[in-house]
Q: What sequence folds into this?
């Protein structure tokens, strides 16, 4: 230490303080595996700003009209041979049809899937962040993250920004040591484990069909058909859902993409013989 | 509102205004004394055997099940049946007024008014109520089905479902209803649709009523408790 003082070199900590402003000591990897980002937020929200209040004023008549993309139908259910995930592919912005070819399933990694409903931007960002955290967990602890833990991570991220205008309704599906896993997570921090969920404005139509045809011991082809029918009938009645059915099957060794069927063709097939 | 599962859909309440014919100045809107809440599942569709109408039997008032055994399908005359959804009081009143008017028409003109005429009359009268009515009957021109709403909407169609549980019922009906159904098949589709809606929608439930209208008049099936259906299905699934 005597040489250090004589040579006039500044210590690393002092140097760092001069370059970076005070208190900004965690530049890299703030969400570490001890606290999963619950102590420091991903974004610093300035005091006094109320994002959800601001968004409310935007959709008033006469004001700036920001219509968020909301309409969708997604469904997922667990059965003996895994988890079926089926989503529509329409993106609407108010009355305008932005796209009929959106992928609302986010492939987090080869054994985890997340569905997307609510604000597309929020879903994509936070689920990619979840993918990063799952990968880091795998590298640090040398085993795959469980579906329960992954959904808990996402849920805690949402809770950090509760009431600030996030909009996300997502289902995290996977297969881990406990078997097939299905969790519903939303922007309010709700996290529910269940056998079957459906989200979006077309969800009630999908619920009727899937409740009616569901059996735990279904064959794989029957389950595919049930998922297809659920989305097809929902898109038939709901104006904000449509396009094609994107269906995934979560199996023990990872997910496979089953099909991408156009709903108009499906509906014509199902409703043959109707007036 | 669009990302929560099973979002509730309550029909919009309209403040009472005077009957058509009175000048607007005489019919001021009155604030409602307490928040009214209503939900239901009713459905009706046409098929080769006539018209089938089905409804649940729960009357709710916000969180309270005010009556678990109400009648949401009321016959208007021997060949005309109306389903009700919305505020029970309004529907009951206007149904009785409609029956009276139709009876008077029958007495004056010696024949029954057609469904479309009845629908027209109902929509003119319904200016101030809330909710939707469906009227189902076979008239001289065959079976007819009209959807009438308190804002004056009057639509003719072959399949309708009204109420907070209607989305759940619609998908079942879309799957199963075809022109060539037998009466038993049609009844089973209607029962299944009401059962699924009652299962998912908080404001629908208890029992299911099914009415079948043909050229010979309406017949009513015995009221069935949906709780039994739930336990039967649970037993089948072995859960």
A:
């Amino acid at each position: 230490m005597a040489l250090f003082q004589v040579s006039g070199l500044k210590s690393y900590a002092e140097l760092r303080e001069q370059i970076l402003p005070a208190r900004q000591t965690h530049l890299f990897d703030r969400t570490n595996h001890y606290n999963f980002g619950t102590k420091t937020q991903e974004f610093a929200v300035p005091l006094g700003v109320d994002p959800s209040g601001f968004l409310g004023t935007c959709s008033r008549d006469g004001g700036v009209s920001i219509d968020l993309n909301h309409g969708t139908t997604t469904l997922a259910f667990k059965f003996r041979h895994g988890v079926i995930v089926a989503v529509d592919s329409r993106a609407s912005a108010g009355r305008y049809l932005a796209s009929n070819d959106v992928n609302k399933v986010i492939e987090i990694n080869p054994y985890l899937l997340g569905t997307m409903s609510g604000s597309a931007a929020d879903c994509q960002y936070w689920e990619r962040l979840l993918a990063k955290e799952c990968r880091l967990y795998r590298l640090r602890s040398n085993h795959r993250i469980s579906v329960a833990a992954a959904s808990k991570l996402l849920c805690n991220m949402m809770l950090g920004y509760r009431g600030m205008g996030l909009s996300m309704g997502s289902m995290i599906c996977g297969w881990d040591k406990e078997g097939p896993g299905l969790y519903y997570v939303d922007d309010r921090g709700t996290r529910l484990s269940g056998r079957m969920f459906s989200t979006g404005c077309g969800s009630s139509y999908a619920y009727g069909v899937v409740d009616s045809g569901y059996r735990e011991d279904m064959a794989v082809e029957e389950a595919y058909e049930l998922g297809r029918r659920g989305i097809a009938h929902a898109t038939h009645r709901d104006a904000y859902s449509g396009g094609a059915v994107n269906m995934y099957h979560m199996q023990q060794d990872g997910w496979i993409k089953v099909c991408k069927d156009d709903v108009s063709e499906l509906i014509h097939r199902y409703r043959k013989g109707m007036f | 509102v669009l990302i929560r599962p099973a979002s509730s859909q309550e029909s919009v309440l309209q403040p009472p205004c005077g009957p058509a014919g009175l000048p607007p100045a005489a019919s001021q809107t009155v604030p409602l004394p307490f928040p009214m809440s209503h939900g239901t599942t009713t459905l009706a569709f046409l098929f080769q055997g006539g018209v089938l109408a089905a409804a649940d039997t729960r009357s709710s008032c916000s969180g309270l099940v005010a009556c678990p055994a109400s009648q949401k399908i009321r016959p208007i005359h021997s060949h005309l049946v109306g389903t009700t959804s919305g505020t029970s009081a309004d529907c009951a009143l206007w149904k009785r007024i409609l029956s009276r008017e139709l009876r008077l028409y029958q007495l004056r003109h010696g024949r029954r008014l057609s469904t479309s005429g009845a629908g027209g009359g109902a929509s003119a009268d319904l200016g101030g109520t809330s909710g939707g009515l469906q009227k189902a009957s076979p008239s001289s021109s065959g079976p007819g089905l009209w959807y009438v709403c308190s804002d004056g909407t009057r639509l003719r169609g072959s399949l309708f479902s009204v109420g907070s549980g209607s989305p759940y019922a619609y998908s079942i009906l879309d799957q199963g209803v075809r022109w060539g159904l037998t009466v038993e098949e049609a009844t089973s589709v209607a029962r299944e649709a009401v059962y699924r809606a009652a299962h998912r929608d908080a404001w629908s439930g208890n029992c299911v009523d099914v009415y079948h209208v043909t050229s010979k008049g309406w017949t009513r099936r015995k009221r069935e408790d949906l709780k039994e259906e739930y336990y039967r299905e649970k037993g089948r699934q072995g859960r």
Residues 74-273 of chain A form a domain with the Glutamine Phosphoribosylpyrophosphate, subunit 1, domain 1 fold (CATH 3.60.20.10). Residues 72 and 200 of chain A are 5 Å apart (CA to CA). DSSP finds eight helices and twelve strands in chain A.
